[in-house]
Amino acid sequence: MGLKKFKAFLKKVAPVILVVAMIVNPGIAMSVGTSMGFSGAAAAAAGAATIQTGVSLAMGATPEQAIKAGAIAGVTAGVGSSVASSTGSNVIGGATGSAVGTAAAGGSAQDVLKNAAAGGIANGLADAGSASAGKAAGTLIATGGDTNAAIKAAVTTELIQAGQQGYANYSNTKTAELDKMNQVDTTTSPEQQAAAGVQQLIDTAKSQPGTQLAQAPTDTVSDAPQGGTLPEVVVTATPEPQPAFDPTLTFTGATQPKSPSAPAPAQTKDQQIVDLIKPTQSADTTQPAPSAPSAPSEAAPTEEKTAEQPASKKTPSPITFTGVTPLTQTLGTSFSGVPTTGTTTGLTGERGAGEIESKETGKTRKNVWNEASLRLKDALGV
Amino acid sequence: MADKRVERAKEETRIFLAENNIQPQAMMRFGEMADATIKDKALYPMFREQFIKTGMADETDIPVKYNYTILVTISTMGKLAGQLAQAKIGV
After folding, report:
1. Is B87 on the interface with A (CB under 8 A)?
2. Beta bridge mates, A357
3. What pTM value is reported for the model?
C-alpha cells in the first residue's frame, strides 16, 4: 500500500471505525486508559475520552468540539464504570460520579479538558491532544472532580512542547503578517508617493536636454521686504477737487456773498451773449444814450426793469431762484422793437425801414418821396 | 443505530481488504498486535516495523511517535475482520 493510499484510507475509514471501536472492542477504552497510567474507572474514562477525541478529530471536528466530545465520553464512561463497579480501591461513588458527570455536561469539566489539551490539538498533534484529554478525564474521575489535578495530569511535557512550538509558529506567522502590512503601508504612504513622484519628474527633466529646472527657494518666506523698507508710492494723477459745502447758502431768493474758497462759477452761454450785446453803461442805466434812438413807448418799462437790477447782472449766480429770468429781461430790452431786417439797423442806427434823419433838423424825416430819399434808397438797394 | 454503524464499519473494512488483497486473518493478526502495543508502548517500534514489512504502509504512513488513533483503528479493524471471516465461513 502506498503512502497516499494508506493516508486516504485512514482519513476515510478511521472515523467510521473509531465510532464503533468501543462497541466492537469493549475493552479498548480500558486498555488505552491503563496504558496512560490510570486504573479502574479512571482508565475507562481516560481511554474513552482519548478515543472519542480521536474520532471527532478524524471526522473533521474542531479541537474544541473534539475535546468536548471526548470529555463527555470519558466522564460518562468513567461514571458508568464506577457505578457498575461496587468494589475495589478505584471505585468512585455514584454521587461523586454524578457530580462529575453533571459538571462535564454543564461545561466546567469540558473547559478544563479543553484548556488542558487545546494546545496540542490546535497544533495538529491530535494524538497528544487526545491523550491529554484522556489523562484529564481519567484524573478528573479518579480524584472525584479535582480539576486542578486533571489539568496537571493533562499538561504533559509533550503538550507543553507542542504548545510552545505552536505559539512560536503563531508568533512567527503574525510577525510576518505585521511586517508585510508595515511594508505595504510604508510604500503607499502619501508623503513617500509624493516624494517619489517629484523625484521621477526631476529625473525625467534631467534626462531631456534643454530642460531647465526651476529651483524653488528653500529659505523661509516671510511678508517682510528685504532691507526692511518699502518703496515710496508716487501718485501722479491730480486729485479732483471736491465741492465744498457752503453752509451760508440759502434759498430765499437773495444772493449771498460767496465763500472765498469757492471757485467762481463758469459763465453760462446765455450770460455770455448778454455781456456781448450789452453796451458799456454806467451805473445809471436809466439815462438813454445820446445816439440811441427814441425807443418805442412800450420798451421803456422793460428797460427800466432791467436797470433796476444791476447787481444781478454784474454778479450772476446760478443759485438765484427769484422767479425772474435775467436773460429774458435783457433780451426783451435789447431786441424789442428792433426790425428784423438788421441791415438798416447796422448802417443808420435803430430806426424803421426807409427812415432817415433830416440833415437840416436832425429829426425824423417825413414819409415823403423826393430825390434825396430815392437816391438814398438806390444807394442802399432797398 | 449502533448496528448500522457497525455494518458500515464492516463494509469499509471489507473494501479495504479487497482493494489491497489482504486476507482477513492477516488483518486480525495486526489487530492483535495493535492491542498488545496499546497495553505496552514499548512494542510500538516493532509493530510499526512489521506493518511496513508486510506492505500495509510505507515508513511515512505510520508516525514514529506512539499514536493512539492508529492503534485503536487497526485494533478495531482486526475485530471487524474477524467478524467478516466468521460471516464468510458461515460460522
Report:
1. no
2. A364
3. 0.42
